Amino acid sequence: MGWVESIQRTINYIEANLLDELTMEQIAKVANSSVFHFQRTFSILTDMSVADYIRRRRLTLAAQELINSDSKIIDLSYKYGYDTPEAFTKAFRKQHGVTPSDARKKRGNLQSYNRLVIQVSLKGAEPMKYKIAEKESFQAVGVKRTYNCKTGENLKNIPLFWDEVNTNGTDGQLFQLNNGEIEGVLGVCVVDESQKDSGLMDYWIASAHIGDVPEHLSSLEIPASKWVIFEVHGAMPHAMQDTWKQIYSEWFPSNPYVPAGTPELEVYSSGDASSEDYYSEIWIPIK
Fold first, then answer.
1. Which residue range or ranges hold the HTH araC/xylS-type domain (predicted)?
2. Can you tell me the distance from the alpha carbon of 258 to that of 277, in angstroms, rounded to the nearest whole number?
């Protein structure tokens, strides 16, 4: 479980330096990881970005100091990383629902985000259905967007990207083009290894396709890989999110594999994605 311990060690580092100017490069280095892979693992396990965690923890500590000291609000603004009292007040109100002045007067409730402790379940109470398969490289065609993982932009905007594709008919076109080895429409996470510390990732909505690439679409080569393929049963998006958590909190810590770092796939079948009987898959290249 070395990688799990490294995440907890990194959380401890963040907490010890919470009032300093932290960068994602520094944080990922403590975990001995790239910015992308640390941010992705962290967000899967916690449902928030590293930046969100730091912001929430700082504002939690700021609220505690506000009601337990005579420190001026302007001084607390600078101490907890805000350039102006106005910016601090806006962020404080967004998290706590009250202004710093009202909090000092004990008007309203405050919202506390406690220090994270990563707990890993190895009991396997809920069985996971998976298989391991080796596949040759194949072509995927579709559309892509680029997101910044440092800011959590991927967590917020990928669902909007799917909404766009489902609304404008691209989803249906991709199902029609799907004549490759993997059946279904794919969500593909891709990180350029030469830029892995930039925090940028490409996210594709595509399908496996043999043949020419339609003019309005782009193509991506998925490399030959050894894959672990997990079954996902249930309505979207919760079934997919819950399975990702189970993979990282149970399956990887109790198996001898690690992610290979090449594109990962979510595979969506045709049918009613809101149905409890909906079937999909997660494909992770491993080594």
1. 8-106
2. 30
Structure tokens at 122: 């190895």
Closest of 126, 151, 114, 115 to residue 245, by C-alpha: 126
| CB neighbour list of residue 156: distance below 8 Å, 6 or more residues apart | none
Residue range 218-229, pLDDT digits in tens: 999 999 999 999
- The single residue listed with the structure tokens 């939690």 is 60
The Cα 7–Cα 71 span in angstroms is: 34
- CB 208 within 8 Å of CB 228: no
Could you tell me the two tokens for 34? Answer: 């790239």
3-state secondary structure of 242: helix
Which pLDDT tens digit goes with each residue over 159-174? 999 999 999 999 999 9
- Separation of alpha carbons 112 and 209, rounded Å: 49
Q: Model-level pTM greater than 0.85?
A: no
| 130-285 classified as CATH 3.90.150.10 | no
Q: Which fold has domain 2-104?
A: Arc Repressor Mutant, subunit A (1.10.10)
**Residue ranges per domain, the chain?**
2-104, 130-285
